[in-house]
């Protein structure tokens, strides 16, 4: 209960906090929300299915208002809360963090995200999915670059089109399940109607593919990221995209499993194209933020392809990659933000020799680069290795395509690093890191290496939920929830 | 029935109180009357009415809900009009009186049980509106709108009467139950009946303002004042749509398949023509008129939904009417000499109440959950899903165009450039905004009861 509504209440309060107090209020509030979720974590046994709301009656429209979490959802909730705290910390010395509207909208977005991760009802899921769009839209509009309406409209309408397709799918699902409870939807029987299942799945996939973004649906991403403020980009790439990946694991595949045969290879192919395409475009970029945006397409293509395999180890690896991608996204966009803040440019051509002037920043940027190219002992290594192995088992062509990400990733990341940090000293003045930036980098590194050395801690949470879902799908489980 | 009489008498009293030229007193009298009407409608089944034996008006559960909604929306429109009406000292009470008379017509149109009462309601609803539209005598646009609306409206009424005559001719009764029975037995199906139903449908499409009978909409909305426009977009539309749905879901339900194709055509054309024309408008009221045409297109799905048509329409209309009234109120607060949308620039950024109301009403109109507008559209579309899937998909594409329209307005109003531009609001306007906000946020909770 407090897990879901605390961000909403704090978000509404945040709008009325005087400007002087907004910054400490925001950070403290986000840490208190994180603390609440940690309390939930401590009381959680890995095989539990905790229900937050579980009304017995069924409301009109097939609404059930069920909310709750399993290991998978709890990991996502913790990730959200931790990342929001980190984002607020990373923005501590920026003007945006003392803006009451920004802080309030961030908490409202957190509310929508936590609601999405804990909802166990189709209509609730859709509601929170749409709700998360509004705060981020306002953040991008108010705090982004001026005159970016075109990119914004594209972003909003594209996502809305996806959502409407998902809505159609949910309406259609209403004819296959008695109500919209997650458990009923998963058990919906499509035997003999595989095409219907595939169509329903396709509608839901459309929404997710736009948000991830998968290869042909990605055109909104780069302009939106480039025009957004640093905090907005972080929120988008570290959290918004994860909604879609989570939705694929928890909702899309279990619901339309009978139709998976039709969609599995198309999506894996698109993921594979995305891996290569994103990487090649990223190699040519001059703007650091655009470069990281395309790198993101490449990374997420791999995760999406892995999820479509829907084997236990592929899902575990995808979850590790999801967490890793959040870490990398925050870290890299912070680096781009730091450079833009101090030099007013993100163009690699204008940069060079920063490491000489600001050695501490040079060091931490290097660490973040290594984390993002997944060197061993970081979480990314485990995730990518297992994903590539699983894809290789499925088909060797896609395995090789996926494995190219290791090479390409190193190429574009090291080029970006080398071009901005070393080379001819074009930059002579560069203020080194501030305390909050040190702290953010240290925390992120700690997390990446921690999960890299001991990924079992994530797997312990994911495995029982995946197995539970698979049992639910095969109908072995008598419906107790 | 009692509510009807209370409201009618309040309207008369209001006209006399108006002679005192005390606008607050008039508003108080009218409000008390409306609240009394609301309560007597609400507790309709709990006390012995003196008009027990009268069978012309019967309120079933859904009709009861519609009647309550109509009274509530009239109350909001009256509050909304207060600031504007009081400036026109000579006519202050005329506005209130005419609105209340029109409301009695709306209640007849909601509760009718025979064709006679239905026609009476339709006329009582429309005639005060012709006057209200043309009441700004100095304004040429207003006179034009009034004349246009009156002539086309009378024409539609004539066609409606012709249709009623033909239906009567083929079924032999004015009573709705008897007509339905005659049709259900399958004895009275004849070309004459079909032509009669078709004529009634055409007149209905005119009254609700759907394509291809929509031409009066933009001109009339532009010519009338904000408050009258809000009243037309909410109560008049609600009553006309309800009567339409009630006719085709109950009385004519065996004939409905015969006209379903035409209604589907009207839906699709209304949606696209409404939203696409709205994109090109620079005047706020014309834009809202086209948006209302498009929303009528959505509402017409209720005609094809026998089972939950009326309930879905109720939810849809509370979302649509509250959003429209909220936007019109904001337009009234902003309005300078011109009715240009450009006036809206930045108003939402510096006035938090306006900003929140505006964002939520526009999101509700675009059909984004968890606002009432979403649930209305969801109910309407999900019931049409199996039978009319292509139309539903077209409707979804149209609603994307609509979302673009509303989003553009939202972005304009939330622009940072208007910072520090504080607008003056009256207490009544604040109350209206808060009431509308409540309707948009909480209207769908009625589903859970």
Summarize it.
The complex is a heterodimer of chains A (481) and B (449). With 481 residues, chain A is mostly helical. Chain A contains 20 helices and two strands.
Number of helices of chain B: 18
Q: Proportion of β residues of chain A? A: under 5%
Mean pLDDT of chain A: 87
Number of strands of chain A: 2
Low-confidence stretches of chain A: 477-481
Round the mean pLDDT of chain B to the nearest integer and report it.
89
Number of structurally distinct domains of chain B:
1
- Sum up the overall morphology of chain B in one term: globular
Summing up helix and strand content along with how strands pair, one would put the structural category of chain A as mainly alpha
Show the largest interface. A-B, 29 and 30 residues
> What portion of residues of chain A is helical?
over 70%
- Could you describe the largest sheet of chain B, including whether it forms a barrel? none
The gross shape of chain A turns out to be globular
Terminal Cα span of chain B: 26 Å
- The figure for the number of domains of chain A is 1
So how many helices of chain A?
A: 20
Oligomer state equals heterodimer
Report what the structure shows.
The complex is a heterodimer of chains A (481) and B (449). By secondary structure, chain A is mainly alpha-helical. Chain A has helices at 2-14, 19-42, 71-90, 100-118, 122-131, 133-143, 149-173, 182-187, 194-211, 221-227, 230-255, 260-284, 288-309, 312-343, 354-357, 359-372, 379-394, 396-421, 435-453, 456-474; strands spanning 50-53, 67-69. Chain A has one domain (2-474). Chain A contains 20 helices and two strands. A two-stranded antiparallel ribbon of chain A has the order 1-2. The relative contact order of chain A is 0.10. The two termini of chain B are 26 Å apart. In chain B, helix 11 (256-279) packs antiparallel against helix 12 and helix 13 (309-334) runs antiparallel to helix 18 (427-442). The model of chain B has no long low-confidence stretch (mean pLDDT 89). Chain B has 449 residues and is mainly alpha-helical. Chain B is globular. Chain A binds chain B through residues 15, 59-61, 63, 123, 126-127, 130-131, 133-134, 138, 141-142, 149, 152-153, 156-157, 160-161, 164, 167-168, 171-172, 174-175, and chain B through 349, 352, 359, 363, 366, 368-370, 374-375, 378-379, 381-382, 385-386, 392-393, 396, 399-400, 403-404, 407-408, 411, 414, 416, 447-448.
């Amino acid at each position: 209960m407090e897990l879901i509504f605390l961000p909403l209440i704090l978000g509404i309060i945040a709008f009325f906090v005087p400007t002087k107090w907004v910054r400490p209020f925001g950070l403290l509030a986000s840490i208190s929300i994180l603390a609440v979720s940690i309390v939930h974590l401590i009381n959680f046994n890995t095989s539990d299915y905790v229900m937050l709301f579980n009304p017995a009656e069924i409301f009109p429209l097939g609404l059930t208002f069920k909310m709750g979490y399993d290991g998978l959802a709890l990991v996502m909730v913790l990730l959200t809360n931790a990342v929001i705290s980190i984002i607020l910390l990373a923005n501590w010395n920026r003007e945006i963090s003392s803006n009451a509207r920004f802080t309030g909208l961030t908490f409202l977005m957190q509310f929508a995200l936590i609601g999405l991760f804990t909802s166990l009802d189709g209509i609730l899921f859709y509601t929170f999915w749409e709700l998360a769009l509004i705060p981020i839209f306002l953040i991008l509009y108010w705090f982004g670059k001026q005159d970016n309406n075109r990119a914004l409209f594209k972003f909003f309408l594209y996502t809305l089109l996806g959502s409407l397709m998902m809505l159609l799918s949910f309406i259609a699902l209403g004819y296959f399940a008695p109500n919209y409870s997650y458990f009923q939807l998963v058990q919906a029987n499509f035997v003999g109607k595989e095409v219907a299942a595939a169509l329903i799945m396709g509608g839901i996939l459309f929404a997710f593919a736009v948000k991830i973004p998968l290869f042909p649906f990605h055109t909104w991403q780069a302009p939106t990221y480039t025009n957004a403020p640093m905090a907005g980009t972080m929120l988008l790439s570290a959290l918004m995209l994860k909604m879609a990946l989570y939705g694929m694991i928890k909702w899309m595949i279990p619901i339309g499993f009978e139709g998976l045969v039709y969609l599995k290879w198309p999506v894996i192919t698109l993921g594979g194209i995305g891996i290569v395409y994103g990487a090649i475009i990223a190699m040519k970029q001059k703007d650091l933020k655009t470069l990281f945006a395309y790198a993101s397409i490449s990374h997420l293509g791999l995760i999406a392809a892995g999820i479509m395999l829907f084997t236990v180890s592929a899902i575990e690896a995808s979850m590790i990659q999801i967490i890793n991608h959040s870490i990398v996204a925050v870290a890299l966009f912070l680096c781009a933000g730091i450079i833009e803040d101090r030099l007013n440019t993100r163009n690699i051509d204008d940069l060079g020799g920063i490491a000489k002037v600001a050695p501490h920043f040079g060091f931490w940027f290097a660490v973040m680069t290594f984390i993002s190219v997944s060197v061993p002992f970081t979480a990314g290594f485990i995730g990518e290795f297992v994903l590539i192995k699983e894809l290789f088992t499925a088909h060797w062509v896609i395995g090789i395509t996926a494995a190219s990400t290791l090479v390409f990733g190193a190429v574009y990341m090291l080029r970006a690093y080398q071009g901005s940090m070393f080379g001819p000293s074009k930059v002579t003045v560069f203020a080194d890191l501030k305390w909050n930036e040190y702290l953010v980098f240290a925390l992120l590194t700690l997390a990446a290496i921690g999960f890299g050395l001991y990924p079992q801690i994530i797997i312990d949470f994911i495995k029982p939920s995946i197995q539970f879902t698979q049992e639910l799908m095969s109908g072995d489980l008598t419906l107790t929830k | 029935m009692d509510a009807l009489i209370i409201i009618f008498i309040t309207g008369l009293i209001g006209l006399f109180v108006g002679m005192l030229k005390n606008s607050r007193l008039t508003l108080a009298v009218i409000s008390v009357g409306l609240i009394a009407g609301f309560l007597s409608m609400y507790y309709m089944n709990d006390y012995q009415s003196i008009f027990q034996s009268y069978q012309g008006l019967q309120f079933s559960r859904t009709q009861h809900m519609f009647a309550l909604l109509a009274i509530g929306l009239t109350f909001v429109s009256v509050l909304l009009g207060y600031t504007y009406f009081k400036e026109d000292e000579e006519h202050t009470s005329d506005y209130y009186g005419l609105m209340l008379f029109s409301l009695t017509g709306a209640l007849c149109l909601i509760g009718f049980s025979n064709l006679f009462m239905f026609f009476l309601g339709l006329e009582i609803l429309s005639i005060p509106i012709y006057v209200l539209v043309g009441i700004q005598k100095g304004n040429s646009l207003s006179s034009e709108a009034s004349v246009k609306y009156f002539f086309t409206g009378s024409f539609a009424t004539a066609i409606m009467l012709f249709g009623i005559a033909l239906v009567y001719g083929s079924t032999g009764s004015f009573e709705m139950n008897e007509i339905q029975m005659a049709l259900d037995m399958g004895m009275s199906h004849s070309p004459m009946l079909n032509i009669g139903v078709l004529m009634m449908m055409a007149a209905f499409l005119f009254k609700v303002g759907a394509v291809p009978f929509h031409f009066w909409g933009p001109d009339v909305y532009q010519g009338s004042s904000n408050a009258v426009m809000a009243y037309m977009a909410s109560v008049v539309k609600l009553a006309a749509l309800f009567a339409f749905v009630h006719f085709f879901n109950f009385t004519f339900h065996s004939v409905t398949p015969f006209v379903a194709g035409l209604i589907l055509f009207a839906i699709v054309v209304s949606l696209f023509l409404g939203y696409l024309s709205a994109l090109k408008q620079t005047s706020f009221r014309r834009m809202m008129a086209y948006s209302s045409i498009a929303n009528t297109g959505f509402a017409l799905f209720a005609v094809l939904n026998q089972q939950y048509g009326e309930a879905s329409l109720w939810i849809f209309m509370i979302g649509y009417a509250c959003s429209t009234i909220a936007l019109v109120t904001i337009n009234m607060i902003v309005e300078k000499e011109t009715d240009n949308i450009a006036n809206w620039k930045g108003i939402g950024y510096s006035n938090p109440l306006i900003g929140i109301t505006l964002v939520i009403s526009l999101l509700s109109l675009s059909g984004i959950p968890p606002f009432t507008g979403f649930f209305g559209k969801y109910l309407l579309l999900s019931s049409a899903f199996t039978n009319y899937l292509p139309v539903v998909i077209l409707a979804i594409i149209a609603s994307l165009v609509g979302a673009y329209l509303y989003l553009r307005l939202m972005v304009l109003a939330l622009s940072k450039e208007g910072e520090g531009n504080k607008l003056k609001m009256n207490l009544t306007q604040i109350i209206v905004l808060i009431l509308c906000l409540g309707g948009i946020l909480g209207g769908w909770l009625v589903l859970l009861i």
